[in-house]
Design goal:
101 residues, mainly alpha, 3 helices, flat
Length: 101
């Protein structure tokens, strides 16, 4: 029996590759900057790729969704907890101050 290969589709479109290529050339030339305004030059290869992919996403090229990390989701939930405890402590502190007056 012959082994069957799965027909795979491209994860990234050609337009995405072009935008990453352009970003890498700009990085190599030292003209790639992160964001608008007076942000510093990009020196990292990974950051240049990320900038190219985000620009491709904005233009509507075929790019997979960003992966959500487990760390960021746990941070979000912990920040929600801390803000709720802060608000409850503020409420109790305001009641105490009203009693003292």
């Amino acid at each position: 029996m012959a082994a069957r290969r799965k027909s795979s589709t491209r994860k990234y479109g050609k337009a995405a590759g072009k935008s990453v290529k352009r970003a890498m050339h700009k990085r190599k030339a030292g003209t790639l900057k992160s964001g608008k305004g007076r942000h510093p030059k990009v020196k990292s290869r990974e950051q240049a790729i990320a900038i190219g992919l985000s620009e491709a996403r904005e233009s509507g090229a075929k790019v997979p969704r960003k992966r959500s990390s487990k760390k960021s989701s746990s941070r979000k939930s912990s920040s929600k907890r801390s803000s709720s405890t802060r608000s409850s402590s503020r409420k109790s502190s305001s009641k105490k101050s009203s009693r003292r007056k």
